[in-house]
Amino acid sequence: MKIGISCHHTYGGSGAIAAELGKALASRGHIVHFFSQAAPFRLGAYSKNIFCHEVEVMHYPLFECPFYSLALASKIAEVAYYEKLDVVHAHYAIPHAMSAMLARQMLEDKCAESRCFRIATTLHGTDITVVGADRGMQDVVRLAINKSDGVTAVSSYLRDETLRMFSPKKEITVIPNFVDTTIFSRSPDSSLRGILGLGSGKVVIHISNFRPVKCIGDIVQVFHAIASATDATMLFVGDGPERSGAETSVRELGIADRVRFLGKIDDIVPLLSLADLMLMPSNVESFGLAALEAMACGVPVIATDAGGFPEFIEHGVHGYLLQAGDIAAMTEQSLRLLTDEVRHKAFSEACVRQAERFETAQLVERYEDFYSGLIQD
Prior knowledge:
CATH superfamily of the largest domain: Glycogen Phosphorylase B
Radius of gyration: 21 Å
Strand order of the largest sheet: 3-2-1-4-5-6-7
Strand content: 15-25%
Number of domains: 2
Order of helices and strands: EHEEHEHEHHEHEHEHEHEHEHEEHHH
C-alpha cells in the first residue's frame, strides 16, 4: 500500500506513534509519505520506503493566523495525486483530518471517487478532550470524525469520551498505542550514570511535553518528599510551558542538586535503562505512551487512576494507580518501590511482560487490516 501519514513533528505521544507506525509499515514493504512541518522527532534514519514532505506555511500580514491547515491540505493533495496514495492517516482530527478532507475535495475533478485516497483518522486525546471541549470547535471535530472513512482511538477511555461528547455517526475502533520491545529494553550504560552525576542512588524519571495536564508541580512535591528519605535523583525529560515553574520550585525547595532538567531527547532508552521509577501523575491521559515505554525497560510507574492508564497498568502489579493530586499516597508508594528491592524486582519483571502484549508488530498488523478494510469498501 501507499500510505500518507499526517502528524505533528513535535515531542509527544501522537508524533512518536505516527513515526513508529510509519517506520514499521515501511519495514513491511509499504510506501510511506509523511506530512508535517518538519521530520517527526522519532523518525530517525530514513529508509528507501519513507518520504518526508515538509509543509511550508505562508505568512501574510493581513491575517493573524498562519495557513498551516491549508498548506497541509495542498501538500497532501499534490502528493496523493502524483504518488497515487491509497490511504492518508491523520493523527488528530484537528487539523490533520480536516486538511485531508480538503485535500480530497481538491482532487475531485482529477480522479474518480474509486481511486481517491481513503482517510483514516486516529484520535489521540487532545483533539477530543481539549480542542473538542471548546464549544466553538465541537462541530468542527464532529465533522472531521464523521467525514473520515475510518476512525481509531488509542484507548477505550478515549473512544468512550468521544462517543459521550460527540455522538459521532462513525464507528470508532480501538487500536492501542504500542512499543517496539527490541528497542525499548533495559540496557544500562554505566558511563551515562557518571556523565549525569547520578552517583549510586535511585533514579526517578518523568518524560512529557510539560503541559498543565501533566501536573509537573505534583511531581516536584512528590520528589521533594522522596529526596528527604532516600538518596535519589530526579530526571525530567522534555520541555514545555510548565518547565520554568518547575525549575523555580526545585530551587526554592533546595533540591536543585538532586534534579536534572535534560530537555528534549529523542533516544530515551539509555535514560529509562537507568531509571528505577517513573512518575506520571497526570490529571488524565488518553493512553500514556511514555509509561508503556518505561515498562518495556523494566521501570514501574506511579500514575493516576484515570484515562487510559488502567488499560495497561495494573495497580499493585506494574506500579500504583492513585487519585490525581494525592501527593501523600504517591510519595508513600514511590518509597515502597524504591526501598524494597524484592518488590521492585517483581514489579519490574511484570512490567516487561506486560509491555510485550503491546508489541509493535501485533498492532501494526491491526492497522494494516484497518487500511485494507477502508480501501475495499
